[in-house]
Structures are given as C-alpha cells and as structure tokens.
C-alpha cells in the first residue's frame, strides 16, 4: 500500500469516523447539558427572536471596541471567506466531497482557488504572528489556539503545493495534503476548531437567555 | 539474420538507409536522455552488434505485451532491431513446439551462458505451481533455471514488473513479480499494460550499446522513459490548470477535449512516456482518444479504487459507517449530558444538605 493509498483509504475512513463521532458527541452533549435553572419571571416572551437576532448582532463588532479590534475583525472575515472559497469550490475538493456525501456542485477555476488559498494562508500567518507578538493575545492564548492554527496552516500549505505541483511528486504531495487534512479531522472535535459547530448555537442560547432577562445580548 | 552478421549490415540489407539508422540511434539517445556525444558510440556499437540471444518467457499473461511489440502496423527500425536479436525461445512467436521448443531454450542457455538476455512477461504464481506450467515445468522453476545464467532480466509488462492483473486483490494465484524471485541479477522493469514498443527496443538498444542497464528509478524502471508523469506531458494540462473538466464521456467538455481528471484519469500519479512517445507510431494515446489514463505502469494499478474514481476522491468504507458513527456520537453526547445532569443534581442536593 502506497502512502497515497493509505491516505485515501484507511486514514480517511478512520479520521472521518473520529470526526463524526467527536462532533456529534460534543454537539449533542453541549446542547443537552442544560443551564442553571432560571426562576425569575421572563421580562418578555421573545427568547427565540432574541436568540436568532444575537446570531447576527454578534457578527458585528461592538461599537466601543470597534477601533481596537478592527484588524482581527476584518482579517477574521477575510480569512474565513477565503478559506470557504478554497475548500468548498475547488474541483478536486468537490470530487472528494462527492465521494463522501454522494453529491457535488459547480467549481471555480483552479487559478482563483490557488489565489484564495494563498490569501487565506497569508492572513492566518499574520493572525498567528499577531497572536504571538501582541501581549494581551499572547496572555490569553493556550496550546489549543496554537495547535488549531497550525493544524489549519499545514493543509493550506500542502494544498497549495499539491495544486501547483511544487516540491515533490504529485502523489506524495497529495498524500501529505490528505494526511494533514485527516489530522485536522481528528483534532477538530477536541479543540477550538469545534467553534465551527458551536458558534451559532452558543450565540442563540446567550441571546435567548439575555432576552428573557430583558438584557441586550 | 545470421548470428555472425552485424546488425548494421542486416539493416542495410533490409533497405534501412544509413541515414535512417543514425536517425534512429539519435532518437534513442535523445529518448534515453543520453548526451549528444553518446550518439557516435550508439551508432558504432549497434551497427557492429552481433545477434544477442534472447530468451522470452511468458507466464501468467495475456500476450498483450508481445502483441504490442509485433503488431505495429508497419515495419520500423525498432521492429527490425527486434527482429535482429536472436529470439531463441518465445511461446507465441517460435515455430518449434513441444520438446523441440524446450530443447531450443536449453541449447540457447548453454551456448550463451552468462551473455543472453532474459525477457519475462507475466507474473509468477506462488500459490500452487500447477496454476501455470510450461511443458510440465512450473513458472517458478523455469524462471529460476533460466535466470541463473542470464546477463540481465527485462521484466516486460506490469504483470512481470509488479504482478499486474493476476496480482490484483484477492490475488487468487499468489502472483508475484520477477523481482520478488530473482534478486541476484540486474532487472529492468518495463511496465505498462502493455508497454510502449519503443521503450522495449530502447532498453535493448541501450544494453547492446553499453553492455549495461540504463539508469533506473526507484521501481526499477528506465528513468529516461518513466521519469515524468503523464500529467506533466499531457496536452490537456492547460485545461486542468483552468479548471475545465469533462464531467462525462459525451458532454461538452469531452467534445472540447478538456481535462479528464474528474473521470478518474490517473495521469498525475502515473510515470510513463505515453504522452510523448504515444502509440501506433506516435499517432495517439489513451487520453488523446478521450479516455483517462488507467495508471497501468504503476504497481497495483488495478486496486486503486476504480478506474473512474478521481484521484482526489477517497477510496474508503461506506456512508453507512459514517451514519453509524453519527448515531454513536449522538448516543455518547446524550449519555454525557445525562451524566452531567445527574452530577449537577447530586451536587445541588449536597449543597442544600450542607446549608440546612
């Protein structure tokens, strides 16, 4: 069995199983965990509306912090957008998703994917440098932040190299790229990458609880 | 061709001009990435070469490799050179049969001990010797006996080089390659299903000229022919770069000659000279005919998840396994939440008990 066969076969299968088990475990466990019982009388009965509104309002920076967090805010949006384009609209990725999900969708030209992946990589590196160099960010960062960042950087680098056929034989680059993605799959449920699944539910819950108390979320 | 006749004289007698012969030698030198200074040596060595004895053994194979070499539509310099070797034993091509044929093999081995070339096509069954025998002799015994005094072994075709189709999962005959058995002789793997004829003759020409085997890659293949992948030399590569792919074999992309990556083309992971040398005297090759590369010159090409599965797609279990994983994860989550609630209630009860 070659490295590529291993990456496309058993490694992919087991990493996906770990990903799905882990995500479902953490997601279901967190949702069903329940909070502290609120014995107060609700100020208004608009919890669902407040919860949904909070999903959107927290997507914008708070006015009083706007200037201070502008860089992270803009860079964060640009990074996520570039990543989504590179991951979801690459022809090769769609073929991969199709093999797992059973359906595909139209793709973008390879050149656009390559450029967006390079942009995503540059932004992520800039954010990592900021995390290391900014005293407050460094203070509030833990190993999870660094592992989660690096485990996303590696697939971006290997993906760009595989796409551009640079540095090694294509099958080796593709195998390393797949293995780096599989490492990300395995880490995903247990680190901060899990925010992908929990961001909106947690915002909804916070918004609903604050709304019940009549507090702006 | 008489055994004592030089190859150059033989070709001249068969209407091959000196110019055509030098042109062939020049092309061979170029194909094998030899320096221009080697041309004179090739012309001289090939022109003066005497008929080398070649014993060709066919084991678990389909005769496609022989067909590839002999069914070229017009006689070429390459085929004349191939004719010019002393093919002392070849099941498909020899006139002799039965004991006479086997006697020819033994005689060639004795007369040319240490000097003859052994060409093998087909894999060797190790599961049971009776799976494939010739004149009552198992493939394994015949290979070991014939290779013992050979100067070098050329494993022609993917079956001989890597086990090929007989080796495909579940490998019912226990098929193995030549290099799995013969370990004390120089072995040149010339894989392909079948290999390109000029690659076989190129390897023979190199051996006749230099008396050595050409530079090989990690899989024992001549680097000059197997050094680059099909994808890098494919004329459809620009469409890959632009993300223009044929989605089916009869859609607009297929008609426009776009890249066949989505249809499972193995060009990016296959090392061979098909895209440059092509077949039928440079007429075309599979991708040129609208079908993706099958990766036939690579080991285990039959077990790479399907000819029409794109390289970037997974070759893994089933979606049912993932659904099972989702159910298991959800059950774990529910269990965790229940356990957490029980712990919370217990802590609350303890707090209340302490307070009262």
Beta percentage of chain B is 5-15%
**Terminal Cα span of chain A:** 54 Å
- CATH architectural label of the largest domain in chain B: 3-Layer(aba) Sandwich
- Find the structural class of chain B using helix and strand composition: alpha/beta
Q: Write down the CATH topology of chain A.
A: Fumarate Reductase Cytochrome B subunit
Largest sheet composition of chain B? 5 strands, parallel
* Number of continuous helical runs of chain B: 16
Structure, described:
The complex is a heterodimer of chains A (217) and B (356). By secondary structure, chain A is mostly helical. Chain A has ten helices and no strands. Chain A has helices at 3-8, 10-33, 47-57, 70-88, 91-101, 110-133, 135-140, 143-164, 170-187, 195-212. In chain A, α2 packs parallel to α9. Chain A starts with a helix and ends in a 5-residue tail after the last helix. With 356 residues, chain B is α/β, with parallel strands linked by helices. Chain B has three domains: 51-225, 3-Layer(aba) Sandwich (Rossmann fold); 230-303, Cytochrome-c3 Hydrogenase, Chain A, domain 2, CATH 4.10.480.10; 327-356. Helices cover 43% and strands 9% of the residues of chain B. Chain B has a five-stranded parallel beta sheet, sandwiched between helices. Chain B has a two-stranded antiparallel sheet with strand order 4-8. In chain B, strands 5-6 form a two-stranded antiparallel ribbon. The N and C termini of chain B lie far apart (114 Å). The model of chain B has no long low-confidence stretch (mean pLDDT 87). Chain A binds chain B through residues 2, 4-5, 8-10, 12-13, 16-17, 20-34, 91-93, 95-96, 98-102, 107-111, 113, 165, 169-171, 174, and chain B through 229, 231-232, 240-245, 261-262, 268-269, 299-300, 304-305, 309-317, 319, 321-322, 325-330, 332-334, 336-338, 340-341.
Question: What is this entry, summarized?
Answer:
By secondary structure, chain A is mostly helical. Chain A has helices spanning 3-8, 10-33, 47-57, 70-88, 91-101, 110-133, 135-140, 143-164, 170-187, 195-212. The radius of gyration of chain A is 20 Å and the shape is globular.
